[in-house]
Amino acid sequence: MKQFLKKNKGNILFLAVLALLIIPQTRTPIQVFVQRLISFSPSETDVEERKQLTDYNWNLTSLENNGVDFSESKGRVILINFWATWCPPCIAEMPSLQNLYDEYGERVDFYLVTSEEPEIVQRFMDKKGYTFPIYIQHTKAPKVLFSQSLPTTYLISKKGEIVIKETGAADWDSEKTKGIIDGLLDN
C-alpha cells in the first residue's frame, strides 16, 4: 500500500484537487482565492479612447426598494460595478470595493448593480458584512455602460468620461486607483 501511494502520489493529489473543484461548496472559495491572487489594479483608459456617458436615464432601486434617480450623479465622480452573488470574480473583488467605499463613499457615488432578487443579495450582504450601496437594475443601463461580462466596473469623471472600464476582478483598493480617483475629485 505504501508503495502504491508513493508511486501514485501525483495522481492522487490531482484527483483530490479535481474533486474539490467539482464540489460547489469548495469550488467557489477556491475560485475566489485564485481570483484575488491574480487581481491587479485597473488601468486608466487613454484619453483619446475614452467614451462619454451622456444618458443618465436609468431605472434602479435600492435594496430597500426605494427608487433611485441616477441623473442626480451627473457632475459627480461615479463608480459603477455590475456583479452577482454567484460570480467568483465578483466575490473576489468585493473586499477591495468595500475598502474603497469606506474611504471615498462620501465623495464618490457608488453603484453596485445586480439583477438578482433583493432577498438573495441582502443575505449575501449580511453574511459578508458589506455596507456599500446595492442597486437592483430594472431597465437596461445606458448603452455606453453595456457589458456581457461580470464583473464589469466603470469609473466615470465629473464630465461623464469613462476613465476606467475594467472587466473581471481587480484590486480597487490600490494606491494607483486612489490616485486616479483623487485626480478626478480635484478636477
UniProtKB/TrEMBL annotation:
UniProt superkingdom: Bacteria
CDD domains given in the database record: TlpA_like_family
Gene Ontology MF term list: oxidoreductase activity
Database matches in Pfam families: Redoxin
SUPFAM superfamilies: Thioredoxin-like
Domain Thioredoxin, first and last residues per copy: 31-186
Family matches, as InterPro entries: Redoxin (IPR013740), Thioredoxin-like_sf (IPR036249), Thioredoxin_domain (IPR013766), Thioredoxin_ResA/DsbE_sf (IPR050553)
PANTHER family according to UniProt: PROTEIN DIPZ, THIOL:DISULFIDE INTERCHANGE PROTEIN DSBE
Name the record gives this protein: TlpA family protein disulfide reductase
Source organism (scientific name): Marixanthomonas ophiurae
